[in-house]
Amino acid sequence: MAASPTLRRRRVARLLFQQRERSGLTAKAVAAEAKRISGKARGWSESKINRLETGEWKRLSIDDVLLLLDIYEVTDEGEREDYTRLVREANQKGWWATYENVLGGGQLIGLEAEASSIRSYQSMTVPGLLQTESYARAMATASAMGETGEVERRVEARMLRKAVFSKAQPPAFWTVIDEAALLHITPELSDQLEHLLDVSRHPHIGIQVLPVAHGPHAAMTGHFVIMEFPMPDPPVVYLEAVSEELYLESENQVREYQRRFDYVQASALSVDESRELIRTRLSAL
Length: 285
Prior knowledge:
Blueprint: H1 5-23, H2 27-38, H3 46-54, H4 62-71, H5 77-90, H6 100-103, H7 107-112, E1 117-122, H8 133-144, H9 151-161, E2 172-178, H10 179-183, H11 190-199, E3 205-210, E4 224-228, E5 236-240, E6 245-248, H12 251-267, H13 271-284
Parallel strand pairs: 1-2, 2-3
Antiparallel strand pairs: 1-4, 4-5, 5-6
């Protein structure tokens, strides 16, 4: 399986931050030392160190990373080679880079590509990874609010995302979908309900529906996605607003959403009951 540049980027950034923390140096002190060692008065600054540690760079220089490792006194050749490999992988481009004009940075797709487990709660829509082409097109058209120039590229990218389920080791995907999302599916989009019934038989996919009749619940404030990865990468929580994406990584934040998902899952119908509710909704269209 090809490494996800997105995940590698986050790993390099996290490791550089951890190395600086262990060294006891401030970002300003590291920048000053980098200037001294490199002999360059320009090119190194406190803001650059901060960008490197948060992954806010387009392409990372291997030489820059090795210079930082010198400052942090990382001398083991094996460890330095690991960093070099990570930087090379982080500088690659995933297929989603072709769709930057409709996907932005594509971080979510890059993380999905290597996730071992994905759990989501969806309040008003079917999860992107389970959408049919017709439903994805209807969603993209509605979101475009009349500006339909990029709708087909959005749909194409959405369909390509589903390739994660075709991998030799696909992620374990579990979703709780609010019944409200199903109520927004019109007769011409009935294939979406049929698709949910089909994929619910997939050994790696679990679908539960949270009935509107159950009243208030632990995730009333909106949908979220929890992604977990093989070691050593930590879990990430993804939140989406109208015009921005937010990624949470602190242990406390992730733990809070994991707990919230557990509560929502406990409030939802069982997998079999959910399948029956979807069938009932499909028959009613």
